[in-house]
Amino acid sequence: MSELAVAPEVMMPPVSGGIYSEKIAVGGGPVLDFSYVGIDAILEQMRKKAMKQGFELNIMVVGQSGLGKSTLMNTLFKSKVSRKSALEKEKEKIPKTVEIKSISHDVEEKGVRMKLTVIDTPGFGDQINNENCWQPIMKFINDQYEAYLQEEININRKKRIPDSRVHCCIYFIPPTGHCLRPLDVEFMRRLSKVVNIVPVIAKADTLTLEERDFFKQKIREELRANGIDVYPQKEFDEDAEDRMINEKIREMIPFAVVGSDQEYQVNGRRLLGRKTKWGTIEVENIAHCEFAYLRDLLIRTHMQNIKDITSSIHYELYRVRRLHENNTVAARNHPARGIGLNLLSLFYWLTVQYNSGCFSSQITQ
Ligand SMILES: Nc1nc2c(ncn2[C@@H]2O[C@H](COP(=O)(O)OP(=O)(O)OP(=O)(O)O)[C@@H](O)[C@H]2O)c(=O)[nH]1
Ligand SMILES: [Mg+2]
């Protein structure tokens, strides 16, 4: 054997999962599978990167004063997030919200970090004249798109643009049991065009099961009749599987939720609930209310999709509109720019004519 020759066992990959895939031969020894490229390893690389970067989700809550918006957000955080802090602040009462306020929580679970931001809004539509009361909320949402756009078009861009865009707006419907109010229709009609709306029936413990089912059905009909496309929007279903899952959610919407930031001992377990004379309503128990479905939609099953739709649909619409506006204003303010564009079009037309041989044929004739 020459000095350069290498024994076959030296060429073997060290362990499985390395750059070559390994199969076990009939004799027991490993055999190289040269057909294996290793594309599937991208998943592990993405997982590692995502774990390092962490995740962000921005949720906004909107609805009439006293419907339990702040409480439900506390429920969402405490049920999933910090039972410890719930116990520490057990006696603390939630104050009335008086201004649009963003509160961020850093959450970690099984090594995955997440920055969950809640945008709490004060009672919406509490005035006698509620005309245009959706405007401050619309402005807030657009301001966040604008901030993102400005960062994006900056020459010296940050490696990671801070994302304060509202990914999802939970709209609280009062538990009247009748139908949507014109204000609810107006808000959802306008806002569903700029943000993902998830409607919920607030304080669902005040409705009987029959009332609840009737109300849910009625709301779905009214949303349809008014052309209001709430999340998950039918037109953005990606494939048949997506459609099947989302169809089930669409049949359940709006979720009838109950919120609480108080813990109680029930059958030896500590859980979030509302204690009444007749028993304790367990907020995470699907036999009692639909809070768990809402939490699953927002966090466990659709979080990435909610963010993708915000970015690729809602923000994109805003971005195109804004850049278009800028161009129109620029062309109007600088006539020379308009002339420049016309010259450019003329040059383009001449190039096309030349390339198609139009000119040469004329010359040779
Ligand atoms: N019955 C019942 N009461 C609730 C529920 N959620 C909250 N509450 C109570 O309703 C009251 C108002 O709750 P908040 O969370 O402050 O309501 P809000 O919508 O944030 O009110 P504003 O900040 O004024 O807009 C509190 O006493 C809560 O304990 C619920 O699901 N069912
Ligand atoms: Mg509040």
Automatic annotation (TrEMBL):
Q: Which GO terms describe its cellular component?
A: cytoskeleton
What GO molecular function annotations does the UniProt record carry, in alphabetical order? GTP binding
Q: What organism is this sequence from?
A: Gadus morhua (Atlantic cod)
What PANTHER family does this protein map onto? SEPTIN (PTHR18884)
Report the domain of life of the source organism.
Eukaryota
Q: Which UniProt keywords apply?
A: GTP-binding, Nucleotide-binding
Q: Hydrolase among the record's keywords?
A: no
Q: What is this protein called?
A: Septin
